[in-house]
Design a protein that fits this description.
Arc Repressor Mutant, subunit A, Gyrase A, domain 2, 6 helices, four-stranded antiparallel sheet, alpha+beta, two-stranded antiparallel sheet
Length: about 160
């Protein structure tokens, strides 16, 4: 399987090049180029890249790249939500449990789901606890490293 960075580049190129109105169209293009990608992964990739729909040249809604300034603000908001609410991280087997301050689990889980990390398959959040299901083959160390790459400030809490 091709690397995530290559997939991201292919997605950006396809969005800029053509008027793509549905994920199915984009998924077909990626599969044709040799990327082994699922609908769920593509959805996460679009969120991570900040790609959304806007009015295209033909008057239909199509996928568009974000304004770089808006994307930076969005990603900083996600980071802020995690840093504000994150308390600790523990593992039980392959699963990960994150503790947050009361009322912060939902925004922290949303951020983790939208960082576009292959290391996080998905989350389930309560009020102050999040169950993180790691991506296939993701080790504890790799998950911690992925979090620290995005938020070095968490080092003391991991």
């Amino acid at each position: 399987m091709k690397e995530k960075d290559e997939r991201y580049a292919a997605i950006k190129k396809a969005v800029v090049k053509g008027e793509i109105g549905a994920q199915e169209e984009l998924l077909a293009l990626l599969l044709k180029e040799g990327f082994e990608v699922t609908q769920a992964t593509l959805s996460r990739d679009l969120k991570a890249l900040g790609i959304g729909k806007g009015l295209g040249k033909r008057g239909t809604y199509v996928y568009m790249l974000p304004d770089p300034e808006n994307l930076a603000v969005y990603r900083e908001r996600l980071r802020t939500d995690v840093l504000r609410g994150f308390v600790s991280l523990d593992f039980s087997g392959a699963l990960c449990v994150i503790r947050t301050h009361p009322g912060h689990a939902q925004p922290v889980a949303f951020a983790l789901d939208n960082f576009g990390m292959d290391e996080v398959l998905g989350t389930i959040a309560g009020d102050d606890t999040i169950l993180v299901v790691p991506g296939e083959g993701t080790t504890r160390d790799r998950l911690k490293k992925a979090l620290l790459e995005r938020m070095p400030e968490l080092k003391e809490r991991l």
